[in-house]
Fold:
Amino acid sequence: MAGPAPLHKRSRRGFLKLAALGTVGAIIGPRQAPAAPKSLTLLHESSFIKTFDEYFQKTLVPTYEKETGIKVNYELTSVGSLPTRMSTITETGSGADITMTFLLLPFLFDEKLLDVSDIAEEAGKKQGGWYDAAREAAIVNDRWKALPFSNIGQLMNWRTDWFAEVGVTKFPDTWEELYEVGKKLKAKGHPFGFELGHGFGDNHGWLYPLLWSYGGHEVEPDGKTVVIDSDETARAVDFARKFFRDTMLDDVLGWTDVSNNKAWYAEQISCTNNAESILWLGKRDFPAIAKVTDQAQNPMGPKGRFHIMSAISHAIFSFTPAKEEARAFLRWLTDEKQLSGWYASADTYYQPLLHSYDNAPMWQVEPRNIPYRDALASAHLLGWPAPPSRQLAESVAKYVVVDMFAKACAGAATKDVIANAEVQLKQIYRQA
Amino acid sequence: MSVSSELQCCRLKGRWADWITSGLSTMRIRPWLDRESVFSWLMLAPPLLFLAAFVGYPFCYGIVLSLQDRPVAQPGVFVGLKNFATDLKDPVFWRVASNTFIYTGIATLLKALGGLGLALAMNQQFRMKNLVRAVLLLPFIVPTVLSTVAWMWILDPAFSVFNWFLIRLGVPKPGPSWLGNPILAMTSIIVINTWRGLPFYGITLLAGLQTISPELYEVATVDGASGFQRFRYVILPLLQPILLIVTLFSVIFTFADFQLVYVLTHGGPQNATHLFATYAFDLAMGAGQLGLGASVALSMLPALALLIVALTRYMQRQ
Structure:
C-alpha cells in the first residue's frame, strides 16, 4: 500500500479485528464462577387491575431491593400468552426465574418446577392454613410445585334493577329458579348472556360447575375411567339447552371472553358469569351500571353448588441459576406483610387462599365481592374430581365439555353430544 | 493514552491489515472471486443460511417432534407415526381439515375474481388514481390483529353496522348472530380474509396488466374485438402466469392462516372455524402436547405440496 492509510480507516479495521479477537477470546477463554445474581425475573400476567401491577412495581420491588440488594424484574405478558411464554422459557432453559401459573400449568410443567413445599407449609402454619382448593391447585405428586397466591373466582353477575322488575330482589338459589327468572327477563328484552364459545375462562367458569351440580363428571377420580355418559350429564345438558333457548342471546354460542363484558356495559344482558372485574371496571367507567350490578354464588343443582377454581400461583423454574435467591424472594413475598398489601391493591379481585385473610379489611371495601370468598369452599379445578393431568389439559384445549353443551344448545340431541364427547375423551384418555 | 502513542498503535494495527490484504492478493483470491460460479454461490450463501436457520431447522425440528410423544417440559419418546394415527381418529381433526379446505377454496376464488376486477378497474384512467391505489392497499397494510378487532365490533350484534342496516330493512332484532352460527361464522371469516387479501391480488395483477403492451389492445380493437373478447383473448392469456403465482402464494397464506381466527372466534362456535394452524396451536400450547400439535401442523404439508407441484408444473408447461 502506497503511503500511510488515513487514520480513521486504520482505526476502524483495527477495532473490528480487536473486537473479533475479543469475542473469540470470550467464547473460548476460561470461565469465571458466576457471581451471586443481583436480579431476579418474575413472569406475570398483565393484571386486569392496574393498581395491582403498580403495587408490585412501585412498592414491593423497591422494598425488596432495599432489604437485599436484589432487583426483581416484573415481566408482564397477557394471561393468554402465559402458557406460550412458559413453554418457550422451559424449552430454552432461560428467560425468567419465577413465573405465575394458573389452572393446570403447575401439572403440565411439573418436571421443570422446584419443590416449594417448605415455603408453602410454613405460610400455611403462620397464616391460618390453606383452603383445600389451594392444595388441589398446587400439589403435584405430594409436593407443592407452586405457591398458591389466589383464586380469581367466576361468579354470577346480575342486574338488580331488571331482576326487581320481575319481582326478584335476591339472586335465585337454584338453576331452575334462575331459569324461571331468565325466561321472564328475556321476554322483557333483558336476556342472559353466558359464554358458550371458544373463550378461555368464562365458558368453563359456569359449564363445569353446572355439570357438577347435576352430578355429572368427565372422568373418575382414578384419572382413567371416562364417565361422561351418565343420566346426570344428560340432565345437565338438557337444562343447558332450555336455559340457552329461553333466557339467552343467540350470539353467546360464538362468544369469547371479552364478549360478555362488552354486552354487560352495552346493557344488553341482565345476568352473566364472570370474575369481579365486571363490577370493578363498572365502578371506574360505568358508575350508573355499577350501581345496579350485584354478584352472587353460582346456583345450586340437585347435587349441590360448585365453582371453578382459577387459582393463580407462583413457581420457580428448576433450571434457574438463582434457585436460592428465588426461594428467598418467594418466602419474603408470602409473608403476611407483603401479601396483605398486594392483595389489598386489587380490592378482592385476587381472593386469598389462606384462611387468615377470611376477615381481612379488604373484604369490607366492597361487600358485594364477599360471595367470591364464600365460593372458595366449593371451588374445584377443571376436570374435577379427576386429578389434573396432561390428558385433562388436552380435553380442555379441545373444548370437549364446552362444545358438548354448545352443540346441544345449538340444537343437537343430548345423546349425540354426549356420545361425541365420550368418543373424544376415550381417545384422549387412551394411555392414562 | 497520548495522541502519539495512539497513532503508533493505529499504525501497528494498520500494518496487520496491510499484511492480510497482501496475503489475500498473493493467494489470488480476487481472480477466484471473479469466477461467476464462485461469486453467485457467495451471494446466495447468506439467504440460504438464513433459510436453513429460520425455515429449514424449525421444519426439520417439527418433523422430529411430530414423531415423538413429547409433552412440554418433558423429554420426548419416539413413537413413529402414532400421532398421525391419533389425528386420523380424532373427529375434530377431520372437522378442522374440511374447514381449512372450504376456507381456502372459497376465499382464494373470491380473492382471484375480486382481485382481477380490482386490477382491471385500477388500470383505467381516472382522477386521483394514485391516491385510490394507495388507499386500496390499506387492508393489507393494517396489522391483521388490529383489523380483526375492528371486524369483531362490526360483527357484534349490538354494535354491528350490518345488523343496523338489516334491522332497518325489516329483519327482526337483534339481527343475525354472525359469529354464533356455524355457517355464518365461517362465512364471516371468509369475507374478512377476502377483504384482507384482495389488495395483494389487485396490486400484483395490476402490475401484470401494465406490462401488456397497449398496441395489443389497439390491434384487437382494430380487428373488431369487443371489450369481453379483448379480456378473454388478450389480457387473460398474458396475465395467466402472474395469476398462477399470486394464487400459489395466496393459497399458502390462506391455508396456514392463524391470526384472524385466533382473535375472532378461537375456532368456535363448536369448532366451526378451527383451522389447522389454530388447532395445532391449541394442542401444542394449550394442552402442552408438542408432538401431537406438530403432527396436526404437518398434516397441511401433503395437500400444499401437491398443489405447489401441480401449479409449478403447469407454469413450466406454459
Notes: Chain A is about 45% helix and 10% strand. The longest helix of chain A spans residues 7-28. Residues 360 and 431 of chain A are 46 Å apart (CA to CA).
